[in-house]
Amino acid sequence: MHFTAQLLLSTPLLAYACWRDLSARVIPDSISLALAGVGLAARLSVGREAALLSLLTAFLLFGTLLFCAMRGWLGGGDVKLAGAVALGLSPAASWDFTFLTAMAGGLLGAVYLAGPLFAPRLAAARGAGLLPRVAAVEARRLRRRGPLPYGFAIAAGALAVLAANPR
């Protein structure tokens, strides 16, 4: 599978994962399974050894993130999504993916920390369209100290690495 095909197949799956994470704070297992399938096919097209190395790297990342999830630092859907993405990347690209995801997560966290400053304005614009409605819901989640939709950070890291052609 050519890297462009992997990017084209992964992009809508990651976008849907973001939508579901934002709307319900749930990332469906079917998205992670589909991404794992696309990624495994991409790595097998490079060679069997490449696929085995990616499988090992994805397993190590999954295990590390599972530990974080067991401590309540990350959601289970985020763990599965990140593991599925790593399955389609080389070990070096998985490192880049992890780093870029952490950076995107930091930016996401900063936006959410700044959210209470903008929440009154966003709530006032409630009837203007989809974006203000989503912002109003997120403002309520912020006030209740709800979880971040970390699927956005995972998708950002994945798309950045995939767009850079990580062979």
TrEMBL record:
The UniProt record lists the keyword Membrane: yes
Sequence ranges assigned to domain Prepilin type IV endopeptidase peptidase in this UniProt record: 11-109
Keywords: Cell membrane, Hydrolase, Membrane, Transmembrane, Transmembrane helix
Membrane topology: Multi-pass membrane protein
Subcellular location field: Cell membrane
Entries under Pfam families matching the protein: Peptidase_A24 (PF01478)
EC number, as in UniProt: 3.4.23.43
MF-aspect GO terms: aspartic-type endopeptidase activity
Membrane-spanning intervals of the chain: 51-74, 94-114, 148-165
Broad class of the protein's primary localization: membrane
Enzyme class: hydrolase
InterPro entries: Preflagellin_Peptidase (IPR052218), Prepilin_IV_endopep_pep (IPR000045)
Name of the protein in question: Prepilin peptidase
